[in-house]
Amino acid sequence: MKRILIALFLTVPLLASAQIKSGPMLGYSEMKEVLVWVQTEKPADVSIQYWEKGDKTIHKTDPVHTEKTTAFIARIIADEVTMGKKYAYEVLVNGKKMAFDYPLEFQTQELWQYRKDPPAFSFLFGTCNYVNEEATDRPGRPYGGADEVYAAMYAKKPDFMLWGGDNFYYREPDYTRTGMIHRNNHARAVKSMQPLLGSVHQYAIWDDHDYGPNDADRSFPLKYTSLEMFKMYWGNPNFAFPNEGITGKFQWADVEFFLLDDRWNKAPNELNDPNKDYWGAKQMTWLLDQLSTSRASFKIIVNGGQVVSPAKVFENMANYEAERTYLLKELKNRKIPGVLFFTGDRHISDLNKLEREGTYPLYDLTVSPMTAGKADAVKQDYNETLVPGTLVQERAFSKIEVTGHLKDRTLTITLFNVKGDVLWTKELKSNLLK
Predict the structure, then answer these.
(1) Domain 2-107, classified CATH 2.60.40.10, yes or no
(2) What is the DSSP secondary-structure string of 179-225?
(3) pLDDT digits (tens, 9 = 90+) for 178-201
(4) For the whole prediction, is pTM greater than 0.85?
(5) Per-residue pLDDT band at 394 (split at 50, 70, 90)
(6) For the chain, which residues make up each domain, given as ranges?
(7) Is 121-432 CATH 3.60.21.70?
């Protein structure tokens, strides 16, 4: 009897945790609320209970019922929180506490404005995350790999992660709503990724492969279904244009992040017109207006494709001459300080620096790929904007740290290989980007 009781006791947490398909994953963090995302295997009532570290007061959310029509996803808001605090939390499915072998924690943002210097913080940035699936992958050597990168990223203990597009790859069988749900489920359920999702806040944009097929543009017929998927599976705090792409923004301490959509309005690459749309006029106006009114120390524009490099290769913005020229002109005319670009797509990593007469240089950090296949740089990449020693042709991710006093902030970029070893480090000063 004793052996039977022990066996039953040991199976309880296994049965409980088996009810969760993916997650929990943290979405946005604000001063007054935090989003927690959970996906179950079948219909269930999901809730969380959480408490401030050092305080035994437990807060509970109302259950959210998961259904097949929304892929059994629960989006739970923790709204009994205090500014600038760290919390532990637990997930309950049908009233039963789930068991995990890693900590579950989230944080709220701090109210520092008009009171003190902004807090130091760090975040990860990476793109091009391919998860192998034999049934739908092309024959031959698997395109994805380096699963160990998720543990290396988790070990860096960032405050949040920023996914820069191609966060997974749709395959040929995926172009129905059912297929898109399957692909999102498959990419999100990677076991080694779960600790990173459970205690690091996640923000994202998309690029072609997690929007549609390779080089997908505004003509993609399933674009609205793809948008539905993005809003179901990610936890961004807002969308600038309802039902028109994934454009949005968020702020962490004194840094603002502008999340651009280079797919929804983008004209086909093959269109022979220098005035063809890249972001489109509506999104461009929104971005420039947001930048003009921003008081952030660093204004980070996150985009799928490279912006600063003049190389007219692949899907760099340089192929869309009119929009790129207008953007650069307006950034200078409006005297907008602190602008940086974070990009992906290229399956190489590098830092580009564009010198501009009469004002500060523009930097563009490209980090790619995380787990997808690496590529070789092309001749045009070795141009006047490439910062020497930064071009890397292997799988990688980056950690960005922001430190210092409000009037003299430092942004430190470190590029790592998939094992977490340093490849290079660069510092940028806010007072030199004015």
Answers:
(1) yes
(2) HHHHHHHHHHT-GGGHHHHHHSEEEEE--GGGTSSTT--TT-TTHHH
(3) 999 999 999 999 999 999 999 999
(4) yes
(5) very high
(6) 2-107, 121-432
(7) yes
